[in-house]
Specification:
Length: about 280
């Protein structure tokens, strides 16, 4: 298997809008031909669990995984100075479309892995593999329209997956790409052929199963390999159990629906991640 290297843009670049970096320094890698804009009510139906995580410094993509709980990337909770954004300054807008959200909630608290360090520069595969955050909302989203998504075990190399995300130049609606492929993996990080732009951090990587779609990873970074646009995402199953434990939920708290269907494959990324 070919080593993936020369990753040009780290998670800090992927979320350049949120970090206050110049959008002019970002390459134009979005290909509208591979994206389906979820603008109309019919197109957006069934995807309302994915929304924007907003703060004063920008936005990320995020997913509702239980009525109280939202999954995103850990670096979305930090500003350009690597300072943690206060939970009360965060807001989750589920199914945001044309300025209207299916549901909007504040954040009560957020949990990230204790060994995640946003200031790692350049980030390694090890540090990127911890780039997941779990948010508890200030009020549950109980709605027949906004149905939480299941999470599942890691994807295998050559799995075809789907990504749904917000991003630069399409911030007011989500977009869907259904033809991504996992091309390599190492240490909890997968490389995919998805097109991602600033704002897609935290977006769910979804795999189809007999029981429906499952979140297998969340977007952490973007780059290029062999002149091919490449996204990098973090396996959910390796980190989520410890985040749930840290939430110290009571017996009557909602839980994440999870289905185990395999242990995934392994490979070698050999990637370099560079913070500009």
């Amino acid at each position: 298997m070919r080593a993936l290297f020369a990753c040009l843009l780290s998670c800090a670049v992927l979320f350049a809008q949120a970090l206050g970096l110049s959008a002019q320094s970002l390459p134009q890698i979005s290909d509208a031909r591979t994206l389906r804009a979820l603008v109309s009510p019919d197109a957006a139906r069934g995807w309302e669990a994915v929304g924007r995580l907003e703060s004063d410094v920008g936005f990320c993509s995020a997913s509702l995984v239980a009525p109280h709980l939202v999954l995103t990337a850990a670096h979305c909770l930090f500003d350009a100075g690597h300072r943690r954004i206060a939970d009360h300054a965060l807001r989750f807008a589920a199914g945001l479309r044309q300025g209207q959200a299916a549901a909007s909630r504040g954040v009560k608290r957020s949990i990230i892995p204790s060994d995640y360090h946003d200031s790692d520069d350049p980030p390694s595969v090890v540090s990127m593999s911890r780039d997941i955050a779990l948010l508890e909302l200030d009020q549950p989203i109980v709605s027949a329209v906004v149905v939480p998504m299941r999470t599942g075990p890691r994807g295998r190399v050559r799995d075809v997956v789907t990504i749904i995300s917000y991003g630069r130049d399409r911030a007011d609606h989500a977009s869907l790409q259904e033809d991504c492929e996992i091309i390599d993996r190492e240490g909890g990080v997968i490389a995919l052929t998805c097109d991602v732009v600033a704002g897609a951090s935290g977006a769910p990587i979804l795999r189809e199963t007999p029981s429906g779609l499952e979140i297998v990873a969340v977007v952490s970074a973007m780059g290029e390999f062999d002149h091919q646009k490449t996204a990098f995402a973090v396996d959910v199953d390796a980190v989520l159990p410890s985040l749930l434990a840290a939430m110290d939920q009571s017996d009557n708290s909602p839980t994440v629906r999870r289905q185990v269907v395999g242990d995934g494959g392994r490979g070698s990324l050999g990637a370099r991640f560079i913070r500009p």
